[in-house]
Amino acid sequence: MGVESALRRHLRLLPNISAAIHEYLEKIRPPTWTGQPFSRVGIHVRAGDILRRDKWAFGYTIPQRPYFEQAMRRFIVQEQHSGRIQFIVTSDSMAWVKRAINFTSIASALKQTSSSTRYTVLVEVAHCEDHDAAFDLGLLSSCDAVIMSTGTYGWWGAWLANKTTIYYSGWPRPWSALAGIIKRDDFFPSNWIPIGGPAFPCCQT
């Protein structure tokens, strides 16, 4: 807490990275949204190594689809009157994310929900692929809000963005070794928003 302002002065995107991210954001802007205001919400899903059995046993968790549905819906309800939101998904396991969570399907369901109620929000999803981890981190930090799953990578993306952040409150797994060494009040800033939900039951290997 005592070094946050100084740290933010040091941890800034290099000009070439900032330019590359700006170019990418322009590329994925929905064509019909040109000249229209809209919000970008970065989503990070940590999977990769924490799909392993030993990681699950230690206390790592990965939230299931209902967590992301609830988090995304929260932003849509906030927008309400003819708003526009583009969700940008980043992950270390994008193929798994597309299969196990399917953000395109979530967005489609949210579009139908908003159109059937008193508000209308245009929703689009982009999957950030073929970029390295540094680019993805800079991309998350450039978004208007962040939905993180678990892990320090998503934490830093959200902290650098310094905007509205939703995090998964089901991490670490209760009564696990990891839970015994984590002090949640220190790890999660008080202004971040916790949302719960089921975790994937275990692992792949």
Give a structural overview.
- The chain starts with a helix and ends in a 10-residue tail after the last strand.
- The protein has nine helices and six strands; from the N terminus they run ααβααβααβαβαβαβ.
- It is an alpha/beta fold and 205 residues long.
- The radius of gyration is 17 Å and the shape is globular.
- A six-stranded parallel β-sheet has the order 3-2-1-4-5-6, sandwiched between helices.
- Helix 8 links the parallel strand 4 and strand 5.
- Helix 4 runs parallel beside helix 6 and helix 7 runs parallel beside helix 8.
- The longest helix is centred in the middle third of the chain and has 15 residues.
- The protein has a single domain, classed as 3-Layer(aba) Sandwich (Rossmann fold), CATH 3.40.50.
- 32% of the residues are buried.
Distance between the termini: 38 Å
What share of residues are in beta strands?
Answer: 15-25%
Average pLDDT: 91
CATH topology: Rossmann fold
**Unreliable runs, pLDDT <50, ≥5 residues?**
none
Percent of residues in helices comes to: 40-55%
Output the number of helix runs: 9
CATH C-level label: Alpha Beta
Structural class by secondary-structure content: alpha/beta
Q: What strand line-up does the widest sheet have?
A: 3-2-1-4-5-6
Give the helices and strands as they follow along the chain. HHEHHEHHEHEHEHE
Q: List the domain count as a whole number.
A: 1
Shape: globular
- Per DSSP E runs of 2 or more residues, the count of β-strands stands at 6
Rg, alpha carbons = 17 Å
